[in-house]
Amino acid sequence: MRDEVSIRDLVWYRQLLPRLGTYWVHKGVALTGFMTVFFVAYFLLLNFPAYPVTRMPVTALDRGIGFHPLTLAMYFSLWVYVSLAPSWMVRREELLAYFWGALGLAVSGCAVFYFWPTATPPPDLDWTQYPSFGFLKAVDDSGNACPSLHVAFAIFSGIWAHIGLRQMRSPAWALAVNYIWCLGIVYSTLSTKQHVVLDVAAGAALGVAWFFMHRYLILPLVRGGQRAVALAEYEGGV
To answer: Residue 27: what are its φ and ψ, rounded to 5°?
Structure first.
C-alpha cells in the first residue's frame, strides 16, 4: 500500500487505482455490509408500515416534468455513484467518519419512514408498456417516498466526490462530469415517477444537512479520537 503523500504526488488519474487499493478490504466489507443492512431495513419499512401511509401531493412542477423511461439507467447508477467518494479516501479517519455520516443519514431517513410513512401518487401510466421497470416496480414501487433517500445519498456522495476530485487536482471537465451525474440521478427520481418534487427537496436538504454534520462534527470527533488513541499508544510504549 502506497503512503498518502506519494499518492497525492501523482497525476490525478494515476491516483485512482492506488486510492482504490488503500484499505480496499475495509472499504469492500463496509460498503457491502452497509448496503445489506440498509436494504433490509428499507424494505421492512416499505412492506410493513407502522402507521397509515400518506400520499404525497403532486405540484405543478411535477406535472411539467414528463416521464422519460431512458433515465432509468441513471436512476440505478446511484449504487455505483455512492461508492466513488469512499473508494477514493486514503485516510482511515476519513473512512470511519464517512461511514458514520452515511449511517446517520440512513437512520434519520428510515426514522421518518417509520413514524411518517409516505408514498408517491400512482402516475397515469400503463407500466406493462415499460417492461424495463418491472423489477423496480416489483420491489420498490412508490413507498418510502419522503424524504427521497435516493436524492439524499446522491447529494451527500456528490459533495464528497467533488472534494475527492479537488484533492486529486482533477481538471474542470472531471468536476463537471460529477455535477452532471449527481444532478442526473436527482432528475431521474422525477422523470421515472418514483418521486415528486417535495420528496426531492426533502431528500436534498437531508443530504446537505448530513454533509455538514459529517464535515464539521463527526470528522473532527473521529480525528480527535484517533489522536487520543495514538497518544495513548505512544505513552504506553515509553
So the answer is: -65, -45
Residue partners of 221: CB distance under 8 A and separation at least 6: 97
Q: Which value, to the nearest 10 degrees, does the dihedral of the CA atoms of residues 180, 186, 188, 192 take? A: -170
Burial of residue 139, with CB atoms counted within 10 A of its CB: 0-12 exposed, 13-18 middle, 19 or more buried: exposed
* In the chain, domain spans: 4-237
Q: Is the pLDDT of residue 138 over 60?
A: yes
Calpha distance 162→102 (Å, rounded): 16
Query: Residue 186 has what pLDDT?
Result: 97
What residue type is 163 in one-letter code? I
Distance between CA 158 and CA 164 in Å, rounded? 10
> From CA 213, how far away is CA 222, in angstroms rounded?
12
Whole-model pTM: value is 0.86
Residue type, 28: G
Give all strands (DSSP E) within the chain, no chain letters: 54-55, 118-119
Sequence-ordered list of residues with C-beta below 8 angstroms from that of 58, at least 6 positions apart, any chain: 121, 196
